[in-house]
């Protein structure tokens, strides 16, 4: 790829991350203000703050991770600074996936209209379990990050299965570990939250579609308004599903090493990887009356400032 196109995609990646940082930071600030004012948080707000904070940090770490590895690959791969950045990146990626999953489950138990006893029990117990689920997600993410850190450290030191690595170069060790260790580890650790997300999202989509079909059979104005609201919720949910799956697939493909820093498509692929963390916060803002109103006030304030 020509240097001009590389620079263009680098710029687009930075702009995408900055937009995501602003949106996620906005969500965290607004809900933190509500927390300070009321002295408590709803389960949905707990998840949104956790998700916004993890995405906010992930995008900063992601920019450092990508630029450091792109311009100083050898130092990033073998130096302690690169090890620390990768540890943070792995931790935040895992935490972000789990928080997104719990958000989907919460929407499912709050909105879906199902009568199965297991679902009714989950609907009753889940909101009160949110703080423990968030803490458990942080613990799981720490374990996952340590497993990745151990793999990276083993590659650098060359002592993991010495018999196999004895006659290997550094890059051969990296490729071997990516195929036999990092890829299975990423697939297993990220497949669990992704599976829970897919099940809860599928149940919610099924419930919303069934409710929308029922409401469309009536011409009552209130029911028409409810139908439109459910249709909008269904569209935003499907969009979130697409972004979530895209993020999951990008992490799995990244583990295979298809788009390394030497690849011409490295920066376009990074844009795809960070689409979910940058675009989904705007969907959350526009779908929440509280966040949307504060966001509208900020836009009016910014417009007045520029007009002055």
UniProtKB/TrEMBL annotation:
| Keywords from the UniProt entry | G-protein coupled receptor, Glycoprotein, Membrane, Receptor, Sensory transduction, Taste, Transducer, Transmembrane, Transmembrane helix
Which protein family is it in? Belongs to the G-protein coupled receptor T2R family.
User: What InterPro entries does this protein map onto?
Assistant: TAS2R
Question: Any one cellular component term from GO for this entry?
Answer: membrane
Q: Where in the cell is it found?
A: Membrane
Presence of the UniProt keyword Transmembrane in the record: yes
Q: Which SUPFAM superfamilies match?
A: Family A G protein-coupled receptor-like
Membrane protein topology class: Multi-pass membrane protein
Report the function annotation for this chain.
Receptor that may play a role in the perception of bitterness and is gustducin-linked. May play a role in sensing the chemical composition of the gastrointestinal content. The activity of this receptor may stimulate alpha gustducin, mediate PLC-beta-2 activation and lead to the gating of TRPM5.
| Name of this chain's protein | Taste receptor type 2
Where exactly are the transmembrane stretches of this chain?
Answer: 6-31, 52-71, 130-150, 187-208, 237-259, 265-286
Q: Which Pfam families match?
A: TAS2R
What's the chief localization of this chain? Answer: membrane
A single MF term (Gene Ontology): bitter taste receptor activity
For the keyword Ion transport, the answer is no
